[in-house]
Write a structure and sequence with these properties.
By secondary structure, the chain is mostly helical. It is built from twelve helices and no strands. The structure holds heme C (HEC) (2 copies).
Length: 312
């Protein structure tokens, strides 16, 4: 075949149409068939306004909203489906994870945690590199919070319903005074966990590790001296626990371990089971026990906070 002008033009156009067909028409026809997933719901006006702020403030440059099968290892809760995104225009999948994936962020923390975190992420996560968004103002932070709490759609709604239910219970217990509050907190811990023997003796090195873990994770809420007056305190209700009210209240290492591992739903107390391995949870529990609660080896079963357990 001869290379004439018309054969080059027609050939190029054919290639162009083929590319448009494969890269645009076929995928479009396919996405049009997408049906709502089992968690799909549309967003209300406040959540939609929060979504606009999410776009305007560049959150998508640090956060993805797409969980893939390779993310099971990161503790993912659900693999994202095409039908989750039907209401999203544009879809904010994101391509970087400077921060964590947010597709199931809704209901992971109660609103007070989210608000303190937006005011300044270092208040609740002392090592965070996320920028502070206090300058957006309270109204906008509320909208952003509503949006983040909607991530995960119906699954997020279920988690939020749990958060709200337990927030009411935690608030009632807090307002009933320290004795009732400590009782309420400890009644939640299953019997078996209270008696879990502490596998780590309180050594100098262990306490030094606990001190560092406390500074990196806990100090923003519970405060440098454990009185609950960290910088996040004005935003958190019920307020961060003042550890000194645990003095002489029969707190065991197992109780501290359980609460630090699982967090306290409804209160801002987060769970640390994904951030801290078992030894670190014991270390920071020992640190809290020794420095703020004034516990020493209880020397009886179940062994006290800092007892090393060695079966006879
Ligand atoms: C420079 C990168 C960066 C930007 C921009 C950013 N974040 Fe983050 N974000 C992070 C990092 C890192 C973390 C993990 C540490 C922390 O929790 O602060 C995080 C954590 C979070 C969390 C907590 C997730 C969880 O449950 O643990 C939420 C919610 C969040 N970001 C929302 C936002 C929103 C909304 C915006 C935009 C207003 C935003 N982020 C902007 C980096 C960023
Ligand atoms: C975002 C704020 C926040 C952070 C960060 C935080 N806590 Fe808490 N913590 C709370 C709140 C709020 C409570 C419960 C208050 C209530 O319901 O009275 C609580 C309760 C607890 C309890 C329960 C005590 C009991 O006797 O049942 C322990 C233990 C605890 N925190 C330890 C820690 C440790 C250790 C860290 C760091 C690894 C930490 N917390 C980080 C807010 C926080």
């Amino acid at each position: 075949m001869r290379m004439t002008l018309s054969s080059v033009v027609i050939g190029s156009l054919l290639i162009l149409f083929a590319i448009i067909f494969i890269a645009v028409v076929l995928p479009y026809a396919d996405t049009n068939k997408t049906v709502p997933s089992e968690i799909f719901r549309s967003r209300d006006a406040v959540e939609a306004a929060g979504r606009k702020l999410y776009i305007a403030n560049g959150c998508v440059y640090c956060h993805s909203q797409s969980i893939r099968t390779i993310d099971w290892g990161l503790g993912a809760e659900r693999i994202a489906q095409a039908g989750d995104y039907l209401a999203d225009q544009p879809i904010l999948l994101g391509s970087a994870r400077t921060g964590p994936d947010l597709s199931q962020a809704g209901g992971e923390h109660p609103d007070d945690w989210q608000i303190a975190h937006f005011i300044n992420p270092r208040y609740v996560r002392p090592l965070s590199i996320m920028p502070a968004f206090a300058y957006l103002g309270d109204e906008n932070i509320k909208k952003l919070t509503a949006y983040v709490q909607s991530l995960g759609l119906k699954d997020a709604d279920r988690r939020m319903a749990r958060q709200r239910h337990w927030k009411i219970e935690a608030t009632k217990a807090y307002e009933a005074g320290p004795v009732a509050n400590v009782k309420w907190l400890h009644d939640m811990v299953p019997e078996g966990w209270r008696n879990v023997p502490n596998p780590y003796p309180t050594t100098e090195a262990g306490l030094a590790r606990g001190h560092k873990i406390y500074q990196d994770n806990c100090l923003g809420c519970h405060g440098p001296i454990g009185d609950g007056m960290g910088p996040a305190q004005p935003w958190i209700y019920p307020p961060p626990l003042n550890f000194t009210i645990l003095k002489d209240r029969d707190v065991s290492g197992g109780i501290l371990y359980y609460q630090i591992m699982n967090g306290i739903t409804g209160s801002a107390m987060p769970y640390f089971k994904r951030e801290l391995e078992s030894e670190k949870i014991w270390d920071v529990g020992n640190y809290v026990a020794v420095y703020f609660i004034g516990e020493t080896d209880a020397n009886a079963d179940p062994r006290g906070i800092d007892a090393s357990y060695e079966p006879q």
